[in-house]
Amino acid sequence: MALLQAHRLTAFYGDFQALFGIDLELHEGETVAIIGANGAGKSTFLKTITGLLPANPDSVMLAGRPIGGLPAAEIVRLGVSLVPEGRRLFPSLSVEENLLIGAYGRREPGYWTLPRLYQLFPRLAARRHAPSQSLSGGEQQMAAIGRALMSNPRVLLCDEISLGLAPIVIRDIYAALPRIKANGASVILVEQDIVQAMQVATRVYCFQEGRVSLAGRPADLGREQIHTAYFGT
Amino acid sequence: MTAWINTLLQGVMLGGLYALFAAGLSLVFGIMRLVNLAHGDLIVLAAFILLALTHLTGIDPFLATLIAAPLLFGLGYGLQHLLLNRALGRDILPPLLVTFGLSIIIQNGLLEAFSADSQRLQAGAIETASIRLGPDLAVGSMQVITLASAVAVILVLNLLFYRTELGRAFRATSDDPEIAQLMGIDNRHIFSLAMAVAMVVIAVSALFLGVRANFDPTIGPARLLYAFEAVIIGGLGSLWGTLAGGIIIGVAQTVGAKIDPEWQILAGHLAFLAVLVLRPRGLFPSAGQ
Question: What is the spatial distance between Cα B71 and Cα A233, in angstroms, rounded to a whole number?
Fold first, then answer.
């Protein structure tokens, strides 16, 4: 059984339909990457999974349990956590407070604690009492990932975590991924950088205009195939 | 000279009362961006609740406040949960209309229940007690207690905001309600708790409003205005700024009244306008706003 499964998932912004029946599976221990052009529905997909957008109950299953359309605060308690696009740290909270609030709803004892996060991202430890907005982009991204990990999620959703960061910083952030996965989280990455996505993902889904245009293991997918799935023809 | 010092002192003390009015308003606006047009009427409602408690049981208003505070906490939670949460959304107009309607309902409900007569909370001997500061200078004990309570309320609110987990959730929800939900924060519950806490501040405000001077069901909107001005002068989101704002209005009013009794209210509004012209974001705008 899949840990997280989207089945014929649709999403709307008012009258505008953004997703047209997405089928996607994430198995325990996997890293699934979602690629696609701007406006393909990648972020919408993550927002729908987390409950920020409405969904039919059966269209999202977590370990066999329907969670579609539950309130977002409820879904995080069940173990699905999002690193939102643009990081969105709370400006009036310090770095440490941002991390602490990640554990507000879900109090499952788990691997991730403040000391372990500071061990994972030592740069945050040095700036723990600083206002979150005073961090560099890379540090903010680390804090946003740490905040999402504090709930000890079973499913970690990452939306564009490399966006706007220098390559060396991106490398640092992706270096944390194996340890995150080793400690109980399966990961869905939304990534514009296809090369990066292919390197870390067990499987890749390509979205195009609200539909899955291609899915498979990175090794099985040809360059031409991806190009077509990404841009259309 | 002593007369002017006395005037300033009176103004500072009065400012404590205005800061209390403003603290509740500021709390609610800061957390949920709800401009509560019924805030003044809720203070008057609380004053009538204290009045009813003192009349029915014969206890003094201080004790009545202690009893009323948890009742008002519950009332605030219920009000937010059942009514105001439904009005909150992207559009800022519905909450304004709903609280405006609430203001009218409270005023008329109080008129029906208590008539238009002026009322007063009787606090006994402490009302006339005073503290002598010099040969010609004294301040009323009750006024000192009012200012001290304002400072204490703001101190406690700051501790709540910056030292507790609930306070962290308050600030996070205020910053970004959408992402706050992703932390497992139930925004509606947080909003209801914020209104409940504001109602406790309202209970304290009502005590000092009712002991200081006469009140009747119609005086709510004017209290709302002073509270608004104190919040704006202080800068949105800063509780200590709110205290400063209250004191500025209080001092302006007493100084105005000293020059000519008719200028009391006007002087407060002029001080407010002057601050708006010179510092449109208030004296202590918080960084996040």
Answer: 66
Six-digit token string for B256: 């105005």
How much is the pTM?
0.91
Amino acid at A173: I
Q: Provide the 3-class DSSP secondary structure of residue A38.
A: coil
> Mind listing the pLDDT tens digit for each residue in B72-118?
999 999 999 999 999 998 888 999 999 999 999 999 999 999 999 99
A-chain CB neighbours of B182 within 8 Å are 50, 52, 72, 76, 81-82, 84
Exposure b/e, B181-202, CB count within 10 A at least 16 = b: bbbbbbbbbbbbbbbbbbbbbb
3-state secondary structure B154-204: HHHHHHHHHHCHHHHHHHHHHHCHHHHHHCCCCHHHHHHHHHHHHHHHHHH
* B111 and A CB contact within 8 Å: no
CA separation, residue A177 to residues A5, A189, B216 (Å): 22, 11, 65
Asked if A51's CB is within 8 angstroms of B184's CB, the reply is no
Whole-angstrom Cα distance, residue B85 to residue B189? Answer: 9
Burial B9-29 (b: 16+ CB within 10 A, else e): bbbbbbbbbbbbbbbbbbbbb
What is the ipTM for the molecules in this complex?
0.91
β-bridge partners, A188: A32, A157
Separation in Å, CA of A202 to nearest CA in chain B: 26
What is the gyration radius of the CA atoms in chain B, in angstroms? 19
